[in-house]
Design brief:
Elements: E1 4-7, H1 17-25, E2 31-37, H2 49-56, E3 62-68, H3 76-82, E4 86-90, H4 97-106, E5 110-115, E6 133-137, H5 152-166, E7 171-175, H6 183-188, E8 193-196, H7 198-201, H8 206-214
Parallel strand pairs: 1-8, 2-3, 3-4, 4-5, 5-6, 6-7, 7-8
Helix pairs in contact: 2-3
Length: about 220
């Protein structure tokens, strides 16, 4: 599976949102990563379906919606209608995870599962047959600009061994502290979707930076 860069819109300047999205449009990034936070599951509040709909009107890229939200199933239909292509929920916030993933898929979207840095990858084993995407958080969720947790590489290797045993091939995404300094090592460890926020939007030339990440 070829690598994909998914710039995280959380790191963009929302006072010039259309210009920030246009940077992604001009780049080789294929996805836009949208972090939805509720102030309960994580100590921050971001945005909901209205912003997703706005971004959808500005780009043809895949909208990769990462829900850091308690009871995320309440919003699946709204996010679908707003333009989400992928919805990822947290294992830690979804007591009926299999049902939640099936509901996302029934609505015509791809379904992902995210795990926090402290969560064991092996807990994903029972949903690998239904998940389209596995997201490994490489920082504690809730805020952008955090330092990368080095343990992530080992988690990726463990996950990919498990995927081979189960003979499944979901996207493997990493989110948090990702940039040119670790892109190759993450890909070598088994990641094929790299979420990058601050590193992209704070770069002198974000379009060029995204290209360099893909060419490492």
């Amino acid at each position: 599976m070829k690598p994909i860069i998914a710039p995280s819109i959380l790191a963009a300047d929302f006072s010039i949102l259309s210009k920030e999205v246009d940077i992604i449009n001009k780049s080789r990034a294929e996805w836009v990563h949208i972090d939805v936070m509720d102030g309960a599951f994580v100590p921050n509040i971001t945005f909901g379906s209205k912003v997703i709909k706005t971004i959808k009107g500005l780009t043809d890229k895949i909208l990769d919606v990462h829900m850091m939200v308690e009871k995320p199933e309440r919003y699946f239909e709204d996010f679908k209608n707003a333009g989400a292509d992928i919805i990822t929920v947290h294992l830690e916030a979804s007591p009926n995870l299999h049902r939640s993933l099936q509901k996302i898929k029934d609505l015509g979207m791809k379904a992902g599962v995210a795990i926090n840095p402290h969560t064991n990858v092996l807990l994903l084993e029972d949903i690998l047959n239904i998940a389209d995407l596995i997201l490994i958080m490489s920082v504690n969720p809730g805020f952008g600009g955090q330092s990368f947790i080095e343990r992530t590489y080992e988690k990726l290797k463990t996950l990919n061994k498990l995927l081979k045993v189960r003979n499944v091939n979901p996207y493997v995404e990493v989110d948090g502290g990702v940039g040119l300094n670790n892109a190759k090592k993450l890909m070598d460890a088994g990641a094929n979707i790299l979420v990058s926020g601050s590193a992209v939007f704070k770069a002198e030339n974000p379009v060029e930076y995204i290209g360099k990440m893909l060419d490492v």
